[in-house]
C-alpha cells in the first residue's frame, strides 16, 4: 500500500466535496481495495439552502456509481441530523430505510443513496471510507478470523461481527465504535465484509484506509501467505475453442438466454485451479455475500452445467426464506467455471459484465488462497449468501428487460470480416459482442479486433472463440466461410440454434 496523494492535484480541488471525490478515486483505482461497483465514501459538511441558511449535511456516494470515476455530482447530500435519527429505531428493513432517507435528500436530482448511508452517518468523523480490501478479508475470513482481527488491528480498528448491509450493520458499527474506540482508533473491521476507515481531513482518512490494508498485508507476508502459486497457461486449441462454445451453449440453456463468456488463463488462475483442495476451498463460498450476485455462491468445477444447475436449484430451495416467491429466485446457471484446460470461465449478460465477473473472481482467488496459506478459509453460511443474491441479484434479468427493444442482440456474438466492417457499429449498438477479423479498428467495450488476415483458418477461429466464448453469426459477402468445418461446428454450438 502506497499513498497516491498528490499535493498539486489536491490543491486544484475547488471545495471539500471535490476533494472528497478526488480521494475516493484514489481508492477506487486500487484493485486491491475496490472491485467495480464496490466501496463507498462520505463527507460531513454544511449545505447552504436557497434562503441563505445552512444545515449539517452528509454527502454519501450514490448507489451504482464506480468509485474509480466518481465526481461531486455522484454524491447524495442528506440532512445529517434527520439521517442520524433513523438509527434510533429498533428495526428498519432496506425498503424502510430508503423510504426514511428520502425526506432528507437535499438535492432532488441526486442519485439513490448508498445502502451503507447509515453506517457513514453513525461515525462522527468528517470523512469516512469503506472498501472490501483483499488483504483484510484474507486475514479475517478464516477459522481464527476474530482472534486474528484483534491481533492484527486491536483498538486501531475494532471488529464488527457480521451483519448484512444496511440498518443492522450501521447500528452495530455505531455500538462497537462507541464501546471500543480509543484515541488510536482509525477504523472498523467488518466481519466477512470489509473495512471502514475515517479521519477529520481528506488525506488522513484516505491514508488511514491504506494503513489498515498495509497492516493486513504485513501480517500475511509474515506468515508466508502473500505470494500465490502459479501454473503454466494452457494453449488455445481447436479442442478448447469447441469446449468453450459448448459450455456457453449449455450455460445459456440453463439461464434461458444467450450469455457471453470471459476466459482467464493467467498463471495465477491456473495455479488456483491446480490445487488439490480446490473443491473444498472454492466450495466454501465467496469472501463477501455481494460477490455471489455476480459469481454465484460456488463455481462449476469442470463443464457439466446441467448437474451444477440441479445442485444450485437444491441450494436455492433449501435456503430461501419461507415467504420467497419461487419466481423471484435466481436462475441456476453457473457464472464461474474452473477447468484445468479452459482456466477460469466467467459468464454474464454481455461482454462487459462477463469480464467484470472474471475480475471479481480473481479477487476471490487471491483472498481464499492467502487465507488458506495461514489458516482455513471460511465463508458465511449458505443462507446468508442467498439473502444477498435475493436482495441485490437479478440485474442481468432486469437489464435484458430494459433493453429488449433497443438492444435485441444482447448476449449474441458476431464474427465480422473486412467486407462487412460497416456493420460493426450497428451490431454493437444492438447489444452484440463483435470479433472483427482483418478490420482496421481498435478494441473497445464488447469489441475485439484480431490482428489477422481475412482468411478464416482454424487458428483465427480459435482466437475468435476465446474472445467471447462462441460465434452466433458471420458477417461477410464471401462464400468461403461456409466451407470451414470448424466454423460449422462452432455455429452449430450457438445457443441461438437450440
How does this model look, in words?
With 498 residues, this protein is of the alpha/beta class. It has helices spanning 7-11, 16-28, 80-85, 94-101, 117-122, 134-140, 145-152, 167-180, 202-222, 238-255, 267-273, 278-282, 292-295, 305-319, 351-374, 382-392, 395-402, 424-429, 458-468, 485-492, and strands at 40-48, 54-61, 75-79, 127-131, 159-160, 187-190, 194-199, 260-264, 300-301, 336-339, 343-348, 413-416, 433-437, 447-450, 473-475. The protein is built from 20 helices and 15 strands. α6 (134-140) crosses α9 (202-222), α6 crosses α15 (351-374) and α10 runs parallel beside α19 (458-468). It is globular, with a radius of gyration of 24 Å. The N and C termini lie far apart (50 Å). The model has no long low-confidence stretch (mean pLDDT 93).
What keywords describe this structure?
498 residues; alpha/beta; L-fuculose-1-phosphate Aldolase; 20 helices
CATH superfamily of the largest domain: Class II aldolase/adducin N-terminal domain
CATH architecture verdict of the largest domain: 3-Layer(aba) Sandwich
First-to-last CA distance: 50 Å
Q: In total, how many beta strands?
A: 15
Number of helices: 20
Query: How many domain regions?
Result: 3
Beta-strand level of the residues, as a percent range? 5-15%
Q: What shape does the CA trace take? A: globular
CATH topology of the largest domain: L-fuculose-1-phosphate Aldolase
Look at the structure and give the CATH class of the largest domain: Alpha Beta
Going by helix content, strand content and strand pairing, the class is alpha/beta
Helix content: 40-55%
Using only C-alpha atoms, the radius of gyration works out to 24 Å
Instruction: Report strand order across the widest sheet.
Output: 3-2-1-4-7-6-5
Amino acid at each position: 500500500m502506497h499513498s497516491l496523494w498528490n499535493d498539486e492535484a489536491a490543491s486544484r480541488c475547488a471545495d471539500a466535496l471535490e476533494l472528497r471525490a478526488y480521494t475516493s478515486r484514489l481508492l477506487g483505482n486500487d484493485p486491491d481495495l475496490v472491485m467495480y461497483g464496490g466501496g463507498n465514501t462520505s463527507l460531513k459538511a454544511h449545505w447552504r439552502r436557497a434562503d441563505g441558511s445552512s444545515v449539517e449535511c452528509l454527502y454519501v456516494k450514490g448507489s451504482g456509481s464506480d468509485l474509480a470515476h466518481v465526481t461531486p455530482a455522484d454524491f447524495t447530500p442528506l440532512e445529517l441530523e434527520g439521517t442520524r435519527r433513523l438509527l434510533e429505531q429498533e428495526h428498519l428493513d432496506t425498503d424502510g430505510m430508503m423510504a426514511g432517507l428520502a425526506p432528507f435528500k437535499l438535492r432532488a436530482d441526486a442519485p439513490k443513496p448508498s445502502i451503507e448511508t447509515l453506517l457513514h452517518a453513525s461515525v462522527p468523523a468528517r470523512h469516512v471510507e469503506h472498501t472490501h480490501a483483499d488483504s483484510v478479508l484474507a486475514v479475517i475470513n478464516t477459522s481464527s478470523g476474530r482472534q486474528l482481527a484483534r491481533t492484527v488491528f486491536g483498538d486501531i480498528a475494532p471488529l464488527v461481527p457480521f451483519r448484512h448491509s444496511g440498518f443492522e450493520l450501521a447500528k452495530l458499527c455505531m455500538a462497537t465504535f462507541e464501546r471500543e474506540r480509543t484515541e488510536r482508533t482509525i477504523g472498523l473491521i467488518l466481519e466477512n465484509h470489509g473495512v471502514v476507515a475515517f479521519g477529520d481531513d481528506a488525506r488522513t482518512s484516505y491514508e488511514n484506509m491504506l494503513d489498515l490494508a498495509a497492516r493486513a498485508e504485513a501480517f500475511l507476508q509474515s506468515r508466508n501467505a502473500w505470494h500465490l502459486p502459479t501454473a503454466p497457461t494452457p494453449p488455445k486449441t481447436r479442442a478448447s475453442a469447441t469446449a468453450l462454445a459448448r459450455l456457453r451453449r449449455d450455460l445459456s440453456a440453463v439461464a434461458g438466454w444467450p450469455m457471453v463468456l470471459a476466459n482467464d488463463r493467467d498463471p495465477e488462475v491456473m495455479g488456483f485451479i491446480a490445487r488439490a483442495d480446490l473443491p473444498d476451498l472454492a466450495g466454501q463460498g465467496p469472501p463477501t455475500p455481494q460477490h455471489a450476485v455476480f459469481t454465484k455462491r460456488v463455481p462449476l468445477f469442470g463443464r457439466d452445467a446441467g448437474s451444477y444447475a440441479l445442485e444450485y436449484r437444491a441450494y436455492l430451495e433449501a435456503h430461501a426464506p419461507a415467504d420467497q416467491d419461487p419466481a423471484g429466485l435466481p436462475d441456476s446457471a453457473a457464472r464461474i467455471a474452473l477447468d484445468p484446460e479452459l482456466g477460469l470461465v466467467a459468464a454474464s449478460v454481455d461482454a462487459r459484465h462477463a469480464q467484470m465477473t472474471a475480475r471479481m473472481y480473481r479477487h476471490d482467488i487471491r483472498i481464499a488462497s492467502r487465507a488458506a496459506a495461514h489458516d482455513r478459509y471460511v465463508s458465511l453460511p449458505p443462507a446468508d449468501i442467498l439473502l444477498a443474491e435475493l436482495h441485490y441479484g437479478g440485474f442481468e434479468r432486469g437489464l435484458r428487460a430494459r433493453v429488449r427493444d433497443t438492444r435485441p442482440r444482447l448476449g449474441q456474438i458476431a464474427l465480422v470480416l473486412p467486407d462487412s466492417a460497416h456493420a460493426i457499429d450497428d451490431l454493437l449498438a444492438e447489444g452484440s459482442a463483435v470479433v472483427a477479423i482483418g478490420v482496421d479498428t481498435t478494441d473497445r467495450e464488447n469489441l475485439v479486433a484480431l490482428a489477422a488476415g481475412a482468411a478464416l483458418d482454424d487458428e483465427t477461429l480459435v482466437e475468435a472463440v476465446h474472445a467471447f466464448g462462441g460465434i452466433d453469426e458471420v458477417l461477410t459477402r464471401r462464400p468461403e466461410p461456409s466451407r470451414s468445418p470448424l466454423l460449422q461446428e462452432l455455429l452449430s454450438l450457438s445457443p441461438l440454434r437450440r
